[in-house]
Please model this.
Amino acid sequence: MSLPSFIQSLVGSEIRTVEMHTSGEAARIVYAGYPDIPGSLLQQRSLARSQHDHFRRSIIYEPRGHRDMYGAVLRPHTELVDLGEAHMGALFLTHEGYGVMCGHATIALGRFLVDCTDETIFPRRQDLHFDGDKKQVEVRLHAPVGLVYITVPIVEVNGTWRTDTSRLITFLSVPTFATAIDLSVPIPVHTRWAELGDSTQVTLDLGFGGAFYAVVPASALGFPASLAKPNISALSNAAKKLKEAFNASPDLRAHLRNPDDKSPQYLYGIMVTDTGSSDKLPTAPGCTGAETGLYFFGDQQVDRSPTDSVVQARVALAMAKGQRKLGEPWTYHSLVSKATGGYKSAFVGTPVEELEIGGNKAWRIEVSGQASYIGASTFVTEEDDDISRGFSFQSLGI
Model:
């Protein structure tokens, strides 16, 4: 995308992106202008954090982004890509730093890579095996969490395979599991919020889907059971205080057990669920039910999508409770997908394999959703413009 000549003469560098969304959650895909960082993907992530974080701030922060912006940087050279085990690598950019896995961005990347015929952007596109009989293609994405397999439905358009947007894109999760069910979390006096009233504790479930998440009904936080017209700022405050109370307790954090990672673990986000809505939710074909949730993560970012990683944890919790069967799909809505009234904006979570981790049951979950293009951008920075290097407005206040 060329810049007008009067702008081109004022800037020294450009960052080019394709703008997408998955169920309303932004996915800004950076394909040009990012530093050519050497090393393994995890080394690239570490160097991005220590030496090139100004790129993340300029891409994600205002004035180009916002508090809830999300990005993915294409990494065409990683150890797995160079070995031919992956087609493309990616670094995930958030408002607070660098993620290890992001499903909504993975779904967007799956579509982007299938549709991208420019080999200067996607050098290994010729390695994709387009299955004309099944009308699908597998894309292997190297994420910081590991190798992620994405199945993208395809249709032939003018002799070229493109994403079939009438069907959902699917990826297979890391092993997911429940770590606590009906866990009581004491809320210290100084941490309580107004809606909690006389209650001194909150009961929640804990699940793992790449990170640890709490799943709690809105009613358990002192709010109406329905999320029909939620007070999002008040719910955010309650979720923030609940996470603070949880993470401050070593006894509670002891429930965050990952046999594959012995490092200290913390609760990453809070999924607030709707248990009181009388509305009939749209369900995807083959699904036997649906539910709605509102997710707060990181430094109180709000996910517009149903949150793939928490979908994985919610499916694992449903399996652990005996509420779901292997192979049974379920529709998960966000406030956005519920408001639009269609199932294609929702995610579908399906348990497809049972495993054992650390002597306990775990599952692999297929997560399905759709991504759409909303634009393309060329971002520039004038040499004497300090503001456009990125700022977080919220961090300027209390």
About this structure: The mean pLDDT is 94. Residues 54 and 389 are 7 Å apart (CA to CA).
